[in-house]
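# nightly structure sweep
# worker-07 picked up a monomer target from the shared queue
# config: single-sequence mode, recycle default, output format = structure tokens
# input follows
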Amino acid sequence: MELPTLSGQGHLADVVPSVLATLGVRGCVNTLDLPESAGACVLLIDGLGAELLRDHAADAPVLAELARATLTVGCPSTTVAGLAAIGTGLASGEHGMAGYTFEVPGCGVLNALRWREHPGGGELDLRPEDVQPLPTTFERAAAAGVEAVVVSDAKFAKSPLTRAVQRGGTYRGVYAMGDLAAETLRTLRESPGFCYAYHSQLDELGHRYGPGSPAWVMQLRQVDRLVESLVDGLPPGRLLAVVADHGMVALDENVIDFDATPELQAGVRALGGDPRVRNVYTEPGATEDVLAAWCAVLGERAWVARRDEAIAAGWLGPRVSGRVRPRFGDVIAAARDDFGMLRRTAEPLESALIGQHGSLTPAEQLVPLAIAHR
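# output follows
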């Protein structure tokens, strides 16, 4: 099966460097051709794919009107990698936050949201600054004399993932959509710098009820009201860029359970990723046998590639560092259509979710870029 390629389009990793370029930060390039500004905010709506916004434009008229382009998010199309793309200005092949779960050589498989061993939940002695050692976009802004502020859920303020990809920014914790809007506008009024704001609940409802479900649509309407409030209150000279970290699909009954499929387990020493994209770490010398088995069992339901093939197809971005390379599976399997690769024993909570993301389909890869400027 021919592998899809990811190239030739604006990337989520381009957003913050483009914004910082409009603020005069040296070394940053405005590849997205954003308007010059005296201060800017990037608002990330977790889980809002471009296809979902297109299909539900009537429920989000402000966002639909402001949308000016679509970006690709790269592989894996999941929150950890997306937040790292925003936080470093780089694709996954360089920042190395290789998904919801991924192997850190010599340490085990890391659940990057919980910062625990996966599966099992045991502690791992991993400093976030070691897992992601590259300068963040917030540190780059601060070094250039541009104040950088993160407006996000208060419970994430001291999380390891925040330390890994958002260090260097002043963290202002919020509790609901109301103070997210109020704190973002206060920051834009009081500071001529860079503000990053984050809303997570659309993604949460998409996982639980499915993208496009009544609950998801109602939340989208509230998100649109949030954006409208920010646009209405945007001070003169300020820029608002609204993006997302990935889209989402609803799984159908066409799924497979790794934990109940011996053919998929043979030669596999560890498994990472999530139900839509799997990093398959093989026993020494077993890669070709594992590749053949996964291709045979999954068939047309997934793209299955050696790591080198995935890199050549641009899945991990234009460059892949030697530090990061081993974090991606010797074999990578990316689901097509509505297929999912579950682990009902090892990952019961994740396997029960209706909405999923992580793979290479347009529904997951493409996100909107909406712009407002005064």
